[in-house]
Amino acid sequence: MNMIEVTGLRVVAGAAPDPVVEIVKGVDFTVKKGEVLALIGESGSGKTTIALSLLGHARDGCAIAGGSLKIGGTDVLALDERGRRALRARTVAYVAQSASAGFNPARTIMDQVTEPALLHKLMSPAAAREKAVSLFRALALPSPETIGERYPHQVSGGQLQRLMAAMALITDPAVVVFDEPTTALDVTTQIEVLAAFRKVVKELGTTAVYVSHDLAVVAQMADRIVVLNNGAVRENGTTLQVLDAPADDYTRALLAARRRPDPGPPAVPPAAEVPLLEVRRLSAGYG
């Protein structure tokens, strides 16, 4: 069963009398129930624009101009604004790149994680708190019973990113969109957060769309990959097919760029060979 069906999706930027620019150009893909699909491509490829379309949303200055977009059989583009808000609350959830921007520093974590469930009257406050704690535990957060009493500034960036995932998952959505949620994290923290995401998505049987430009991340998270370039699909296949035997030249170029050896930091001459003024300049962080 397909949970997501996207056919001929077009998104444009601009409006008359200005020229209209097509930024998503007739994109097609499907995602089966319980499957994780990755949208990959360089900056400007249209991956985030497509991901936001799954929520029935277009950024300021943009509009969904054509095509069909169905989630669980519901025609997203046929819904009015009220229907789209309900869709975002109960069917599709979104995990953004920067969790720190998504939390109110003046409210406790528990108040914010449980808010979607309470706002849409999906469960009682006690049930919402119980559900939140179970998600904290599933996402490998420390002290799951008490972490919700803290404020956002009292937890690490990796923990806050997992807490944003808990906020997205508390309404039991059928689909979760992860929009490069580990980009701002260091490599070690990325690994921990990705492992937590992968575990909870599989345990809950959630259908997920993962937006990324990082092929190493995609290899860990996705069952299938859609490669995007300039708003169009260049390749669509299983993760194994796309990463091990790419059929498209653009995909091969992405992989070649990823595999290019890191030259490492430039060699630093012995201290005795560096003039004292240069040592001071380097120590101060200049140059």
List keywords for this structure.
single chain; 287 residues; alpha/beta; six-stranded mixed sheet; four-stranded antiparallel sheet; 37% helix; 24% strand; globular; disordered C terminus
Structural summary, described in words:
The chain is of the alpha/beta class and 287 residues long. It has a domain at 97-172. Helices cover 37% and strands 24% of the residues. The longest helix has 18 residues, at 187-204. 35% of the residues are buried.
Topology, number of strands? 10
> How much helix, percentage-wise, in residues?
25-40%
Structural class: alpha/beta
Distance between the termini: 57 Å
Strand order of the largest sheet: 6-7-8-3-9-10
Q: Could you say which overall geometry the principal axes of the C-alpha atoms support?
A: globular
Low-pLDDT regions: 271-287
| Major sheet summary line | 6 strands, mixed
Q: How do the SSEs run, as a string of H and E?
A: EEEHEEHEHHHEHEHEEHHH
Number of helices: 10
Determine Rg (CA atoms, Å): 22 Å
Beta content: 15-25%
Average of pLDDT: 88
Helix and strand topology:
Layout: E1 2-13, E2 21-32, E3 36-40, H1 47-53, E4 62-71, E5 74-75, H2 81-90, E6 92-95, H3 109-119, H4 125-138, H5 157-169, E7 175-179, H6 187-204, E8 207-212, H7 215-221, E9 224-229, E10 232-238, H8 239-244, H9 249-259, H10 276-283
Parallel strand pairs: 3-8, 3-9, 6-7, 7-8
Antiparallel strand pairs: 1-2, 1-4, 4-5, 9-10
